[in-house]
Protein: Sensory/regulatory protein RpfC
Organism: Geomonas silvestris
Amino acid sequence: MRQPAGDYPCESFMPKLTLTTKISVMTSLLVAGVLSVMVFCTYLYLERQFMNTTARQQDSLVSLVADEIDSKLLLTQRQLVALAGTVRPELFQDPVQAERYLRLQPDELETFDNGLFLLDAQGTVIASNPPRPQINGGNMSYREYFQKTVQIRKSVISEPFLSLRRKLPIIVITAPIYTKDRHLVGMLCGSLDLLKANYLGKLAEARFGERGYFFLMNQNRDLLVHPDRSRILKHDVPPGGNRLVDAALAGFEGTSETVNTRGVPLISSCKRLKTNGWILVGNTPQVEAYAPLNKAKWYLFSALVSALCFTALATRFAMRQLSAPLFRFTRHVEAITGLEQEPEPVRIASDDEIGTLAAAFNRMVHEVHRQKRAALEQEAFRENLIQNSSVATYVLDREHRIIIWNRALEELTGVSAERMLGTREPWRPFYPAARPVLANLILDETLGEVDELYGVWGRSLLNAEGLYGEGWFRELNGRERFLCFDAAPIHNAAGEVIAVIETLRDITERKQAEESLQKLSLAVEQIPVTVMITDPRGVIEYVNPNFTAVTGYRPEEVVGRNASLVRSSWHYNDFFRELWQTILAGRVWRGELRNKKKNGELYWEAASITPLKGEKGEIRYFVAVKEDVTERRRAEEQLRQATAAAEAATRAKSQFLANMSHEIRTPINAAIGMLYLLQQTELSAAQKGYLEKAKSASNLLLRVINDILDFSKIEAGRLELECAPFSLASVLQELCQVASATVKEKPVELRLACGPEVPEFLSGDSLRLSQVLLNLMSNAIKFTEKGVVELAVDLLASGSGRSTLRFTVTDTGIGMTPEQQERLFSAFSQADASTTRRYGGTGLGLSISAQLVELMGGVIRVGSEAGQGSAFSFVASFATPSEEERLALAEQLRCLAPGAAVVDGCRGMCILLVEDNPINQEVACELLERQGARVVVAGNGAEALERLSEPGSLIHAVLMDVQMPVMDGLEATRRIRENPAWAELPVIAMTASALLRERELCREAGMNDQVTKPIIINELVATLLRWIPAAQLPAEPALPGAGTQETAGGLPERLPGLDLRRALATLESPALLRKLLQSFRKENLGLMDDIAAALAEQDLTRARRLVHTVKGVAGNLGALELARAARELEPLLGRDAAERAGALELLHSRLEELFASALLIGTGDPAQQPAPAPRALDLEQLGELCRRLASLLKADNLNALGVWEELKPQLPAENAARLEGPLEALDFQLASKVLDEVALDLEVAL
């Protein structure tokens, strides 16, 4: 049957169009594409040329205007300089003549439209034209143009600024005026108003095009000239607001497209003025600049559309003429479709491609019919081939009947072809009941499922319409076999299924081998370790899934590549060389490798590499079995780091404790020193009582600070108890003094009950015992509003050189509940929250006390009832000191008693004091000089070595601070001990540390002894006498004024930056306050520069030390605002400059405020104070002061002025007058030369 042409499927993307239409459309599209590309390229070329031309023209215009402004600015500047050359210096002495001179220059006002001004060398306005009385006599020295002119001594064009009175934007051009000897006497200034119609003001009115305009700006982004006058001198173009402006400020000159801060797209050109670096910018809106280009774009598009329409029409007409023969050929082909006999050939008389196609078609039809006959012959041949094939095969027709059952299938099943041919039972040899086989399903998919018949089945990989299956058959011809089935349809010429062929293959042996191999493969695939197999060269042939899970590489990414793919650079080449030597020798290698994953991450593997050998013993493969041990190694590393961090934290904590001890004890040293100095003055009985209580409170304050440090040491397990002889009576007496001070006005009676058998002297840690008793007594007094607080001491046992005592503190206070007692000794815990609010405290004291008692071998017990009071008791064991220790202790107590005579103990000694804190220097010097000693001061270890090395220096002992800048006390002591001349020189440490370790370091460095800050003068004197034999000291008369009370002068009621009441409460001496303030000012005049230099050098340690020192000293002096500013700055030093700028400025302000107060009170009113008696210093002392002054003068150190104040009264009047002039002028170089001459006159060696 003939089929319509339209029923044939069409593969074209335009199936419903005729060939003519298709060719027309394709041709039109091709032409359209070519023309579009040509038009687009033409437009791009025109656009580029137009934009480049526009940019060049605008750039040339801006450059021309910039050059013109440059020339006019330069001409204006030269005109002013020429005019300045006519100004006589005498005019600066006569303002009237100067005013007249300027009025005689009317032509200049055409250039300088805002007037001319004449300024003298101090910046004072002498005259102006036009006359402006309001500014005549005013001072302009603060103006930048004046300062710059004075600095560079040349004419200057200023940056624009607003005038003082009228607030108009102006610029000023200056011309310096000199005398004949080139001495600057003044300057002539010409001013231009940027809003007037001068050559700069006219720039704002200039236009190019319809909307193009100019504006002028400086490097600070200030608009100098702009059409919008409201924007002049405003910071109106922020960074990032205009890309071209940002580029111009960075040095760009030229033209570019940009968007201004108002969001308008512009073509901008910029040019930098040569005279002063201002930037001239010309802007044209892109809409205006590119208007011709947009019109050209419209013309090109219109021409393109017209050309395309013409091309489409012409192509369609031509194709209709050319395709007529092809239509006739198509109709012939449709007419012969389906004929059995060979048809007549088509007749087309044409020599073109259509004629050639018709001839080829006629030959094809003839060949098809010839091949049809051959196909019938081939069908008979294939049937014969199947019958004789070695592959078991059968064929079903469309009715499911067996039409072929070959000989190989007969042998496999044991069933002959005679029994099977014509039947519909291909299942019979294989199954006991009727079931569909694969061939049945191909013919009819609805026959059922075969899941139960085959172990595996599905679509054939070779034929999309075929099926395959395989499975075990237990009874096949008496044997158990595994068969593989393949079924495929057989089609006729029309593509219809006419039969199904199914082949069977016996693969029992191969299946058994596969199952064995599969078991092994499953084991390798699922084992939780990595398995890799390589050839002898290391090329990977297999990896299991765990390899992918560990490394991230898929098998296809690594198979065929060398195993070094996962190697990292962690191991040295020798490591892998030894590995290969081992496995190539046929031995197993075991070890750990650090390899690299696909993402670059390193990981650790525990590996075992085994060589596999062939039949001849040659190595054929290497099998690597590896386990990821990264987590184990990471855990080991974390453990190691944690251990190291814990050790580092312990070290840091110890260092912190040492630093805290030093920083806290240093100001306490000054406080206790001042109390001692006050004690040496004449006081009333009440004042002495107050002083004793203040001194005891200061000492116990030190002990409270020690409590805090002790808690940290107890936590770290580093607290050790000392064992030294002490007087129990002294401990209890001092305890009662402090306790009585805490009672204040409470109606509480303090009782001390000490049994007669309790020994007076014991050996142990008296400080810790006092600390525990103080905590218990303080708590009892705090929680007792009225009643009795009693401390009882009883002897429990004595013998074998030890005494066991029981201490009991009983009160009649508020008492505690059992629940409160359970948490009583926990750190930071008290009875309850309300107690904390009412009575204060941190709850730390009892926790420390309990742990200290445990270290003493006892335990604190408590008995209490709410509202009935409490009783705390503990037992401690102490050693009994020997008779010699008791006598020495009694003598020591006698020497340390208040009022003990030690004034002459240091007479004749020369002590080198090494201390970096100026206030502590002051206190120590005063204390020692009151005892008759002469003191030489060094600010650090390096200066101490210089003092010892000075010719003629006679130092009896060195008092050495431990923590100092430049060189600390430990290093300085080591240097001293390295010099044989100083091997026997006593070096005594002054340490503020509470750690035994630092004291051990002092001994290891070579120090003979140590005294603890705060300094107790009696202990210090006793220590000095212990190490300086009296035979070494010269017999000297007492220094005048030693031990006398200083005279107090009047002070103002209020001083800026100083809490005067607090300062005097601490020092109790206005004269001493004056002296310390002057000393503080001299020491810290360059403090801000030193801090700035340290920050610039990233030396944060030095910066923190400077700020920390001034914080402590300011607090001691009562400068609380300065101390608070230093405290706020200290944590900000490590941050960026912007964050700490405000704190630095605040510190500077507070420091200047305190300096002003120091200058205000001076050193006292000489008219109201008795003249100081001259100090009779010998030549050695005079030489010491001269050498110190010479050293400071060479270093340009302002501390030289303080030394000069000490030296001045000791010099003859004529020598003092010679030195005073250079020092007051701060000419240290001249002063150093004069000092050399004075020393030569006095026969003093420098």
Notes: The first helix runs from residue 19 to 84. The radius of gyration is 55 Å. The mean pLDDT is 79. Residues 928 and 935 are 7 Å apart (CA to CA).
